[in-house]
Automatic annotation (TrEMBL):
<comment type="similarity">
    <text>Belongs to the diaminopimelate epimerase family.</text>
</comment>
<dbReference type="Pfam" id="PF01678">
    <property type="entry name" value="DAP_epimerase"/>
</dbReference>
<dbReference type="GO" id="GO:0005829">
    <property type="term" value="C:cytosol"/>
</dbReference>
<dbReference type="GO" id="GO:0009089">
    <property type="term" value="P:lysine biosynthetic process via diaminopimelate"/>
</dbReference>
<keyword id="KW-0413">Isomerase</keyword>
<dbReference type="InterPro" id="IPR001653">
    <property type="entry name" value="DAP_epimerase_DapF"/>
</dbReference>
<dbReference type="GO" id="GO:0008837">
    <property type="term" value="F:diaminopimelate epimerase activity"/>
</dbReference>
<protein>
    <recommendedName>
        <fullName>Diaminopimelate epimerase</fullName>
        <ecNumber>5.1.1.7</ecNumber>
    </recommendedName>
</protein>
């Protein structure tokens, strides 16, 4: 990704000098990462000295919005519980989400790199239940669980809960879609939300091809198009397999590059590129 390292360093310095409701951020241990262009900030909660009660929408929003070099799409707070590693996720505007596929991929990479998780396979606790993760062979794959609550909404659209609620809309020309405008219209459609029984609807515009699908996603919290949405990729692939009989594994072209969706005992598996943008691995105190 094209990020000015000087601006990013300045953002980090500003973050270290901030406090949110008396919680100093100078000792924050984190990694700014991206999964296919979906920018995620992984915070090592325990090593940062944060209490569980500190982690909420206000703190999440203030941390994310400190960065100006790049839009931070969301923040994943990593903590340790009896079951092992837990991820608590918020969108960049502070909206709490029970899951995020690309955040889980980034958090898995972070944890394996630091020995918190074995590379072969394990589970990460989320607010949508435990999720299978693996970095075997250097490739991070994470499970979203099975597609749930599947239903056809209209001739060209389907609903599926793929760890988050998704409306999949088939379009003939993906490049022509005004994702922000059309996505917002569907996301804030109260009658549609009531019919589906879900607020915070993600909207995935999908064009099918002979051997793959292409996707553009409107994401709540960001309230705009995101370069890649992991749960959206999973939900769209579920529709492609169920409705259009496209066999797994399914290649999915996002604006942030190609991702792959497969299926195994733990449900939909997503994989793609992951990279570090900035690492603050050693607690530092602002002078």
């Amino acid at each position: 990704m094209d990020v000015d390292p000087r601006v990013l360093a300045s953002d980090h310095d500003r973050l270290r000098r901030r406090a949110v409701r008396g919680v100093g951020l100078d000792g924050l241990v984190f990694a700014l990462m991206h999964g296919n262009g979906n920018v995620i900030l992984v915070v090592d909660t325990d090593r940062s000295g944060l209490e569980r009660s500190d982690v909420d929408s206000v703190l999440a929003k203030e941390i994310c919005q400190t960065f100006t070099a790049i839009r931070v799409d969301g923040i994943a707070f990593l903590s340790f519980v009896d079951a092992g590693v837990k991820m608590t996720y918020f969108e960049g505007d502070g909206l709490h989400s029970v899951m995020c596929g690309n955040a889980l991929r980034c958090l898995t990479r972070y944890c394996v790199d630091r020995g918190y998780l074995p590379a072969d396979q394990d589970f990460v606790a989320t607010d949508d239940g435990p999720k299978w993760v693996s970095a075997a062979g250097g490739e991070v794959r994470v499970a979203l669980g099975e597609g749930r609550e599947f239903q056809q909404v209209d001739a060209d659209r389907w609903f599926v809960f793929s760890a988050l609620p998704h409306l999949v809309v088939e379009v003939p020309d993906l490049a022509a879609v005004d994702v922000k405008r059309e996505g917002a219209t569907l996301r804030f459609d109260e009658k549609l939300a009531a019919h589906l029984g879900h607020q915070g609807l993600h909207v995935d515009f999908v064009q099918r091809h002979a051997d793959h699908i292409a996707i553009r996603t409107y994401e709540p919290g960001t309230e705009d198009e995101t370069l890649a949405c992991g749960t959206g990729v999973g939900g769209a692939a579920y529709v492609a397999n169920t409705v259009w009989q496209l066999p797994f594994p399914i290649r999915v072209q996002t604006r942030g590059g190609e991702m792959t969706v497969d299926h195994h005992d733990h449900g939909l598996l997503i994989s793609g590129t992951i990279a570090y943008l900035l690492t603050a691995d050693t607690p530092q105190r602002a002078g």
